[in-house]
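Researcher: I'm preparing a figure for a lab meeting and need a structural model of a single chain. I don't have an experimental structure, so a prediction will have to do for now. The sequence is pasted below. Please return the structure as tokens so I can convert it later.
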Amino acid sequence: MGMKDQFQDKSEQWQEQAKQKAQQAREQGQRGRQSQEPGRQSQEPGRQGQERGRQGQERMRDEESERMQREEQDRLDQDYDV
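Model: Understood. Here is the structure written out token by token.
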């Protein structure tokens, strides 16, 4: 297995891990909303902002990991182009 294959495999593993963590966070958020008492407001205004912040952080982490993977792939491609 060449170095390029190794880096691609690692990149794919990181992408999969990021997707799994995002899915777990979504599931935990859904469970939290379902366990609240019926008739009550689902979330206080402060909690809504916190949840949006968490979602934004997850999105930024996903974007950051994708950016890092693209940069890594670009470096590998440059190495093999020489």
